[in-house]
Amino acid sequence: MKILVCITHVPDTTSKINFKDNNTRFDTTGVQFIIGPYDDYALARAIEIKEASGATVTVLNVGPADTEPTIRKALAIGADDAIRVNAEPTDSFFVASQIAEHAKAGGFDLILMGRESIDYNSGVVHSIVGEMLGIPSVSPVMKLDLDGTKAKLAREIEGGKEYLEVNLPFVAGCQEPIAEWKIPNMRGIMSARTKPLKVVEPKTAESGVKTQKFELPPPKGAVKMIPADNVPELVNLLKNEARVL
Amino acid sequence: MPILVFVESAEGKIKKTSLEAVAYAHAMGGPVTAIALGAAEKSELENLGKYGAQKVLHASDEKLNQGIIQAYAEVLVKALQDENADVLVLANSSLGTPVAARVAARTGASLATNVVSLPETASGFVVKKSIYTGKAFSFVELSNKKKVIALKKNAAELKEVGGAAQVTPYTVQLPDALFAVKILSSEKATGEVLLPEANIVVSGGRGMKGPEHWGMLEGLAKTLHAATGCSKPVSDMGWRPHHEHVGQTGVKVAPQLYIAVGISGAIQHLAGVNSSKCIVVINKDAEAPFFKAADYGIVGDAFEIIPKLTEAIKAAK
Questions:
Q1: Which domain holds residue B174?
Q2: What number of C-beta contacts closer than 8 Å exist between A and B?
Q3: Which residues of B touch A126 (CB under 8 A)?
Q4: Which among B200, B216, B195 is positioned nearest to B280, based on CA atoms?
Q5: Best of A95, A162, A236 to disrupt the B interface by mutation (most B CBs within 10 Å)?
Q6: Which residues form the Electron transfer flavoprotein alpha/beta-subunit N-terminal domain (chain B) (predicted)?
Q7: pTM value?
Q8: Do B290 and B262 have their domain in common?
Q9: CA gap B91, B140 in Å, rounded
Q10: Residue B162: pLDDT over 90
Q11: Predicted ipTM?
Q12: Is B185 helix (H, G, I), strand (E, B) or coil?
């Protein structure tokens, strides 16, 4: 069993978002970067499968050199080796093209990633990779159990769940509660330093999508407090001031 | 050049977000051809004319009654060709978004999801997208001739612009290979307002003290015709199902009104609600960070305030 886990290197969920250079670039000042939380679930499930029934787990990230600490963390959690595609992950189609390239070459049985990155939130890379490879893709997957050459999945849909069956290989975009996040232990951290991390140059992929600039939402006005003994006043304000009732 | 719009239905009704997609395409300058897959009510499809669809294709093959993504993408790729359309518009959803991705990859289209407003076409074709889980926006140029646009809720205003649309049956060959993913069963809340679609959401947090107290929130939700949501700890503890979890790693909502009861307002929860038009926070802790993100707040005991609020809403109706 060979598993490819694609991870993103994204600002911590508590980060304050700011832009610089006339709102054309993300301002990394004071921002801590982490493995995308959804990707972390995908990685944890891959490691569980490896521990339960044996597998090799390869991590792939599309990013410049400063994503390497994030990749090393994935190796510390238990992945066996890693590939870094040396490029800015500018858009979904570009990233998916890089993943598809390595997925094809690597002959993976399972390609896991998060349901979406928490920076651009597009939530489409798994589907594009599936289309490029001509294999099924399922997202967001909350449960993934392997049964020989088949897998049983649960996928979240609006207001409920779908239970699916699909043959390997396939692509899954993962989310909780597919597995518990894993925290690297000291032995993992030590061994991660010497695990192979291959750096490769990207293939060209023209997506016809270009981010021109960023914008922050307008600041929120001050909260209006209503005394607890005057609840009808809240209803009045919602109806006549906010006009949402 | 016609614009193709993929519409979804839930419990026999076209989803509101799909109506918004039709309205969006109409506002782009249409002509708009809508397409529905699987079982759908004819009257509901004709009704799409009201929002600007001139023509509605109905691919009613029963194999499409289940939302199989690869098969849906196949139908839409063919429909784009047959209609000679360059642009596909649809609503972001657990079905729409992956279908959009596959159609874009197949046709070489520029793709944008989470789009929140109509395109700027003064120079090029630029759409505004929600990014960083609602904490920012980006302006993205889509330069390929073919484009696929997936809309976030409230991207277009619903206005009645026409009468009944003409509904035409539509057939596509569907090889078995498209059905590699088998849907064995599904669980779906029925008769309730779906959280991602709801105009009003009533959400509870740890301050509700236990699942046995949810009846009170459900009562309020029913009075408001609202969906119920919850914070991450509440779904983690199993008080409520995961599909009700609102936040960074759960459902992102964009209702007119979001009422948070006993939720402190961690930044991860705020990430799921920051597209709401109006936020009401009820919490016994005056220092709860959620008040800073709220429009209206009440400091007090939820168990006293919720029944009063429910009564006051009934009285105001």
A1: 3-179
A2: 250
A3: 98
A4: B200
A5: A162
A6: 3-183
A7: 0.91
A8: yes
A9: 18
A10: no
A11: 0.93
A12: strand
